[in-house]
Amino acid sequence: MNNVAVNRDRENVVNLQERRLDRTVLRTYRTRADIDDIVPNDKQPRLGPKIDEELQRQIEANGGLFEPLLVEPHPDLPKKYRIIDGDRRWTNSRVLVEQGKEEYRQIPIEVTDRTLSEEDRLRVWIYIHRQRKEWDAKEKEMVAYRLVDLMGRASAANILGITVRELDKLVDVFEVSEKFTSLRDPSAAITWARELMGVSKKLLTPSVVEAVVKKVNQKRITNSKDLRKLRAILPDPVARSHFLTDAGDLESSMLRLAVPEKKSKGGLSDDLEAVVDSMKNVPWTALQELKGDPEILKKIDDAEAMLRSLRQVLSNAK
Question: What is the model's pTM?
Fold first, then answer.
């Protein structure tokens, strides 16, 4: 880092601003740094590829990064910064620089006045990402899984502000999502996993999960919402057994569901039920046409009188 940059940083340190992120209050200043003086965090909560051609086009269209990276003084490398938030932006800016586009070498950064603890760093990253639309779309399960790997279940749940039981559900969803490998949009795997894990855990045995994953990857199930049919299929032994076969699918399994027998009380009870059903099925247009019909109104009066008499007889029966 040259002397001009060092002097500029000293001036900025004097003018620190407070930034509150959940329970963590940061004191930061803004400046610019060479891309080689910024180091990614090896314990980044986000998993998966970070190179994004669309993001590169956005950086070029804006003439550089619009939002500065949030960084901290690197604990082991003097005059270097470690990324707290902005790893994707740094990665794709670096791609542009490696393509010979030196105008993207200088990166806007927001620097904390101290190196954060690991827990504070993760809390800050999670707070920032919860404000973005990606969090509900796909990130919370991935981050839960990564935090358990980094810190264990109890600490991960504490940082996310959820119970260990809720954390375990998120981890289960992420692990299942990783098994859906043939989707056109890989990010949709979380949606599929959420639908599948919405089925009762008592019914969702490993063999059922394996069968679902196999049929989805074979494109024999093409809509994630269709997995809701499993809630009817799995409690039925015949339908479930068929679904678990290689030939079984959701539709053919639904056809094997046992039809529940309608309990009949017989006699007057069935007759009354038939009359009520018949009245319910009269189209609204037909009712409009009968409006004011004296003959129909008289029959209704007669029926009403008969029903009142019937109720009185049955109410007084001993």
Answer: 0.62
